[in-house]
């Protein structure tokens, strides 16, 4: 079985009428010791971009985006307990990624 490898990370999307920007940051790991972060009050998701000193597989960057997207979704819904459950968020991001990259056909 051929597993597709394409997953497009958007530059922006909307949640409940708020435009969320996605920024690939070359220095996030140095600034925040993180590979991704949801900046709720700024409506921004920052993802550590690959650089000469940081080189993560594309699939890890995609899962990081989905992880931060889930934080944003739960924040928008006012679900603070879910938003702060890192283990659940991480597992959901991995499962969503697998579902998206292995999806076949159109409904």
Key descriptive features of the protein:
107 residues, 20% strand, 4 helices, 42% helix, four-stranded mixed β-sheet, 4 strands
Question: How are the SSEs placed, and which strands pair?
Answer:
Layout: E1 12-15, E2 18-25, H1 28-32, E3 36-39, E4 44-48, H2 58-76, H3 80-83, H4 86-102
Parallel strand pairs: 2-4
Antiparallel strand pairs: 1-2, 3-4
Helix pairs in contact: 2-4
Q: What is the radius of gyration?
A: 14 Å
Work out the number of β strands.
4
Strand order of the largest sheet: 1-2-4-3
Distance between the termini: 20 Å
Beta percentage is 15-25%
**Roughly how much helix do the residues carry, as a percent range?**
40-55%
If helices are DSSP runs of H or I spanning 4 or more residues, what is the number of helices? 4
Low-confidence runs of at least 5 consecutive residues: none
- Report the sheet with the most strands, covering strand number, pairing sense and barrel closure: 4 strands, mixed
Category from helices, strands and their pairing: alpha+beta
Q: How would you describe the shape?
A: globular
Mean pLDDT: 93
Sequence of secondary-structure elements: EEHEEHHH
